[in-house]
Amino acid sequence: xxxxxxxxxxxxxxxxxxxxxxxxxxxxxxxxxxxAKKTLEKxxxxxxxxxxxxxxxxxxxxxxxxxxxxxxxxxxxxxxxxEDKQNPEKIDNEVKQVSEFEKDxxxxxxxxxxxxxxxxxxxxxxINKTDKVTQDQKKNIENVGLSLSEEDALKAQxxxxxxxxxxLPYNENLLVRxxxxxxxxxxxSQSEILDHARMNKPGQxxxxxxxxxxxxxxxxxxxxxVPTTGYERWKELQLNFDARxxxxx
Amino acid sequence: xxxxxxxxxxxxxxxxxxxxxxxxxxxxxxNPLPIAVSPLSIDDSSKKSFEKILKKKNIxxxxxxxVEKNLKTSGLFNPLNKDAFLQASDIAHLKPRFEDWNLIxxxxxxxxxxxxxxxxxxxxxxxxxxxxxxxxxALAFTTVPNNWRRVGHIITDKVYERLTGEKGxxxxxxxxxxxxxxxxxxxxxxxxxxxxxxxxxxxxxxNELVLTPRFNPTxxxxxxLSYFRNLxxxxxxxxxxxxxxxxxxxxGMTFAPRFSPDGKKIIMSFAKDGNSDIYTMDLExxxxxxxxxxxxxxxxxxxxxxxxxxxxxxxxxxxQQIYIMKSDGSNVKRISFGKGLYGTPVWSPRGDLIAFTKLxxxxxxxxxxxxxxxxxxxxxxxxxxxxxxxxxxGRVLVFYRETKTDDKGKGFSAKLWSIDLTGYNERxxxxxxxxxxxxxxxxxxx
Lengths: 249, 446
What we know:
The complex is a heterodimer of chains A (about 250) and B (about 450).
Chain A: H1 4-7, H2 14-25, H3 34-54, H4 72-85, H5 100-105, H6 109-132, H7 134-142, H8 148-161, E1 175-182, E2 188-193, H9 205-221, H10 231-234, E3 236-242, H11 244-248
Antiparallel strand pairs in A: 1-2, 1-3
Chain B: H1 2-17, E1 21-25, E2 33-37, E3 41-42, H2 44-54, H3 59-74, E4 77-79, H4 98-103, E5 108-117, E6 120-129, E7 134-143, H5 148-164, E8 173-180, E9 187-194, E10 201-202, E11 210-215, E12 221-228, E13 231-238, E14 244-249, E15 254-259, E16 265-272, E17 275-282, E18 288-290, E19 298-303, E20 309-314, E21 321-326, E22 333-334, E23 341-347, E24 353-360, E25 363-370, E26 377-382, E27 384-390, E28 396-404, E29 412-420, E30 426-429, E31 434-440
Parallel strand pairs in B: 2-4, 2-5, 3-5
Antiparallel strand pairs in B: 5-6, 6-7, 8-9, 8-31, 9-10, 11-12, 12-13, 13-14, 15-16, 16-17, 17-18, 19-20, 20-21, 21-22, 23-24, 24-25, 25-26, 27-28, 28-29, 29-30
Helix pairs in contact in B: 3-5
């Protein structure tokens, strides 16, 4: 058995590895210095000022309630639903489950491109920040997961936002895993249902309902109560929604 | 090769260092979901047509009100006050302005319109996920105008199913015994109504005593017990055609005939030679088969939804308790072991629970337990209440409760009540007279 690609010149990995290596080599176990804290606060203040000067909050233009027409696409969609999916002659008991929701969870090359672009910006920001404040980063790497209090704060927030669909069976395996890409302020830039294939499978209606309720909870909870430091640590987060305990009573 | 191994090791190590943080969310809130029911819009000419036919000023608003009331009654939804709506109702063909609905904390939104088309009522509606900004469902119904209440119930069923994951129970009926007059000379009639108490109709005149009506789970057929010349008779009544037939005379004490899940058999208890046992009758060939054979009193049989098991109550242990057995009468097993007496076991349509009435220290309870007897939960307690009947989705129970009408304990009133499995959502079901012995139908539109 041969692995032909091994013989060839490697694989375009070095750039990724080198970034990771740089981060690791700059970390030490030196405790958090009070001086650095002051420096960090100064920098943060500067950044805050910059943000307020450069990007004032965007004013949303108020639109009159009834004057918003549907975009052309939407009108076409409505017409299509009428023609294809609805039977005007008899009571239609079939639920047309609109696929828009799932589309978001499916592969979207544009979104990935956007994500790559963002990650580039974020990487650049990280590198800049590490240049400026090294000790903070060092501390973050030291703690790989969330601390208990950080995790509890996040859980408590999501518990309040998640309306559990009470009709779901308690004796089925209904675990919805959602991977989140977070912005530093706790808002969600991307959410992905890890088992999204189940959403469209026949007989998985319960899973779909649970997944949708979990997505609603995340949207409702934004910005998430994430730690104020160590963005690199939690910029990617996986939430496992499991309602069995609640449904069992 | 060494180079590759080095790279591989670095990759593995770095990946370990960047392990994804996982947070388990195992609790949520049980608050009702905030939902906005925008009144169904209607054009002027349709409005006039419906006003003429149905004597309703705005049939769109009337249908929306039914949806709203149903959702509220379920206890799982909180329909928001219409006064707070920022967007007008005429948005049936528009994408809603989600930020406006977000502002009033709506998580779901129902929009739609009503039309008068070819002498029929045509309703289109859409369900929107406000937080995701997405359409979840779009449906249209056409029916005769008189069916407008049912359209409201069907819309609720669809919305309920889409948001909770289980089928609804709104397009259903309840059959019950309507009671009038003093307790010693009570007139009892068979009556039927929609699950929300509307469209009440009396099916018998009250000349004979009627008892324990039960719906066939597969059709609009009802079986009930009536006394003809002081002899108990089991009847079959077709609700849709009004046709009635006698299944048979059963001398002695006869109790609670009930259909098998496929609707082909009736199961009941009656006393033969002074001993009450459980029997089935095949409705095609009228062959009666004895299922239990025990010197104790065996009553209140109820099939599991798959037809493989039967629950019943018996005093074979010395006290009235709940038992289950295979449908052929073998493998009898006691499942209730709590303090007090247990009766009227009814197997849930979901198959996971058995509802019962319990008498303990002079108080009556309606409760549920798992089919092995574990997890007993008492949902409601009162002076006198019994005869639980499940909604077709196995979430709500309807039962009747007798209450004293004055402080001295004189007089009494019997009414129907419903309670859901949480035990918190208890409601009075409106009936024009006193009522007892309710039985919930399956969904009319399957």
